[in-house]
Predict the structure.
Amino acid sequence: MTVQKKYVVGITDHMIGTPDLEADILGEDVDIDFFATTDEAQFSPDRLARLDALMVWGARLGKDSIRHLSRCKGVVRYGVGYEKIDIPSLTAAGIPFANNPDYGTEEVADHALAMILSLHRRLWEHDARARGYTSGWQIHSLKPLARSNKATVGVIGVGRIGTAVVNRLKPFGFRIIGYDPGQPRGHEKAIGYERTDHLEHLLGLADIVTLHCPANHETRNILDANGLRRLKPGSILINTARGELIEDLDALEALLRSGHLAAAGIDTFAMEPPPDHSLLRAWRDRDPWLQGRLVITPHNAFYSDHAAIEMRGNAAQTVKILLDEGRLRNRIDA
């Protein structure tokens, strides 16, 4: 018996095969229209006009597309960030928007912690240099190298992921300072970190700075050239959040070359793949001055097999609740 379709749900693009998992969750009465492109210019107005809901992975969604969503009850992003979504235009069109915050928290926190510990212990630098040792062995210890409980980690953004990072850091004995104006007073007492209300204070004290905030009008380019220069000399910088937080690769390179910045771990860039730059060429070519001091991963801190399933399932469940109950969870307003 053929089940009559009640709804049409669009999926702009997908990183992991076809949307079969989403189809199972949404049910047989939902017809999925899989656009299979991140190029918004290829979104057909006719296809947009028939959608009851739209799920977005990596594509942009701007006002030219939104004006064709004439029957859409809601737009749901697979991920947490929504800088590619024109929320004011959705609001003006009366279309609610939701992100997907409850996935991958463990993975990003683990990824950040792996970068923190490995760069703090100078593991990659030891590995790179040890390949060339022809005499001696244990004598080649790298200095300075502080004990964990003598070092301070500054966490910028102490939300879900930042909190998970704090909880992972505590057993190692690091002093932890958190900066997040959005968290209520007393949050630091419940979680267990020192609160500062001044970013300058954190940057001046932290031996390691790790970023866990969204990219918005308050945080975008939060570590520009001036911000990077305010980092404590010899510090380590970790970014598993948003590339737009550190857009100045010239400044990043200068500080790494001078030694003001001991090392950096970067998972995300403002443009991906990142454009050609002398810092990235030095990284690709394993230039001796940079070896082991710059670690780059291709924006996959969020990923594990479990997180991918969780992300897709949670996003699809959000759409199902919207269609069945008229309620949009995780709603984000303009």
Summary: The first helix runs from residue 20 to 26. The chain has two domains: 7-103+305-332, 105-296. Residues 219 and 276 are 25 Å apart (CA to CA).
